[in-house]
Amino acid sequence: MSGTAVAFLDGCWAEPSQLSIPLSDRGLQLADGLFETVLVLNGEPKLLEAHLKRWQTSAALLAMAPPPEAAELQPLIQEAITRAGLQSGNGALRLNWSRGTSQGRGINIPDQAESRFWLQLSPHEPLFTAQTAIVSRHERRNSNSRLSQYKTFAYGQAIQARLEAQQAGADEALLLGSGGELCCGSTANLLIQRKGRWLTPPLSSGCLPGVMRGRLLERGLAREAQLQATPEPGDAWLLINSLGCRPLRTVDGQALELRHDAEALWRSLL
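Given the sequence above, the corresponding structure tokens read:
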């Protein structure tokens, strides 16, 4: 994999390990922040407009200051691509927006706070290899929480679900919603092909409104449906996000149909 990781914070460029944020930053202390992960493919950021739209909408609904807009970000992104040596390479770009540093302590949203932006670009190749999965017994998405609808810094639940899967000998964990219906993977949306149709859990399940999920729905390639955790004969299950599309071989040890066109489906959405 070519290229090197670079980061930008407070006007400075460096390797990610060489930059730091204050200990008083609410993103660090309270996971009070948002991020977007954008695919860089052949030196080009993909679906940036859709990512920034979700970023801006999420910040407004969580009573955060507006994050940087495209006009400010695009020169920084292009410089990051050049500094990382990814002008013709592939990478994962993370855009971060914290509510920032405030005086005092506690969880109350301060009247005055200096919001903080930083980015990181790392070499990354899109992932399409098949995986095994379990349905998490310990973690569920809160279908009623607005935090389930936005890409916040708080990924502790996803980390625990993935750990649970790995301890059970699987690659990935699927999470249920509050009502016991299928919701998503730890870091990806779920797609199920059943009787010739692609289905995906509705937002009411607590799943993130993923950019690739949105593209599927907009193009009429998938529709929302409440889904149970038990596969039906002939099912094919995929986990999809901006960085790849992974077919599932098994769920809780039950074999699934293995789709070999996951990569083609994913690329058609870019």
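The radius of gyration is 19 Å. Try to locate this feature in the token string yourself.
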